Amino acid sequence: MSITQEMRYRLSAIKCAERFGIQRAAANCHTSPASIYRWRKIYKESGEDIEALGSKSRKPKTHPNAHTKEEIKLITDMRRRNPNIGLQDLWIKLRKRGYTRTQPALLKALKRLKMPTSPKIKRSPTCKKSKPYEQMNHPGERVQIDVKYVPKECLSPEFVEKYGSTELYQYTAIDEYSRYRILCGYREHDTYSSSLFLCQVVSAFRALGIEVECVQTDNGMEFTKQFIANKINNHSAFEVTAKRLKVKLKRIKPHTPKHNGKVERSHREDQKLFYSEMIRLNRLITDENDFKRRLKRHQDKTNNRPMRPLNYMTPKQVLEAYKNKHLK
């Protein structure tokens, strides 16, 4: 038990009474003489233990409406015979045997008896346990790549008139270890654009002294032809480029974007910090080169932004810290 301010106050009243008398101590400490007499008696009987001066529980030891021994025995026996029923079913069974209390009273009684208040639920033998998320050990070990559709509201009339289209796409690559990102814009999202972006990602990371070992994507047609090709060996340009660059490809399970969660979350932040601001300020995209320049500035800004998963370090700082620790 910790020594509280109340204990120190009562001990100071006792010391004051020993020095100046009960009446003066009561006046100085703003309490009654009877209280000081009581505290002094408790203090001496406990062997001058200051913790004995603490307030005791005011909980009543008995109550006229408390559960009787017969009722407690009925509840205990019924719960032991029916461990897998809920509170309401248990209460109904007890009512049929003469139990007159309410359901909240039964709940309090079960908690007081430290008995389960809800049915015991066993995990299904066919239920799969969720695996912990795999943590990366070094930069470049796995890079997530995905495509984001640029909102049409961000395109200016000059852009639509120049290209005759409202389609514009943002390619994003994010390193799972450091959250460092590479962004680029294209007017098409096909295997050719994906292969060009993969070359850009590999060269950008090599410029930082990092080799990309694995790339993780979804099952979109801009990355693979496995769902539309008739031949098994009919690989897309993206897959051929990855093989030429000696980069391992990993595809997530279909219809599970959460497995590419880091890049999906970064796209949500892009929508909030980049595209929504573009619409709010009415600074619309005029052409493809203008979009790429803006993406490059946004990329540098996000790579220098502190992140909570990185202990409020920036992705660039994480890369520098890793290189200083392991590559020197």
What features would you describe in this structure?
The chain is of the alpha/beta class and 328 residues long. The chain has 3 domains: 5-53; 69-112; 143-326, Nucleotidyltransferase, domain 5, CATH 3.30.420.10. It has 12 helices and 5 strands. The protein has helices spanning 5-20, 22-29, 33-45, 69-81, 87-96, 103-112, 157-163, 191-207, 237-244, 261-280, 288-303, 315-326, and strands at 143-149, 169-175, 181-186, 214-217, 248-251. The two termini are 53 Å apart.
Strand order of the largest sheet: 3-2-1-4-5
| DSSP helical segment count | 12
Reported by name, the CATH topology of the largest domain is: Nucleotidyltransferase, domain 5
Backbone structural class: alpha/beta
Q: Unreliable segments (pLDDT under 50, ≥5 consecutive)? A: none
What integer is the average pLDDT? 89
Distance between the termini: 53 Å
Strand content: 5-15%
Give the topology string: H per helix, E per strand.
HHHHHHEHEEHEHEHHH
> Would you identify the CATH H-level superfamily of the largest domain?
Ribonuclease H-like superfamily/Ribonuclease H
Q: Indicate the overall shape.
A: elongated
Q: Regarding CATH, which class of the largest domain? A: Alpha Beta
Main β-sheet: number of strands, strand sense, barrel status?
5 strands, mixed
Rg over CA atoms, rounded to whole Å, is 36 Å
| CATH architecture assignment name of the largest domain | 2-Layer Sandwich
Number of β-strand runs: 5
Residue share in helices? 40-55%
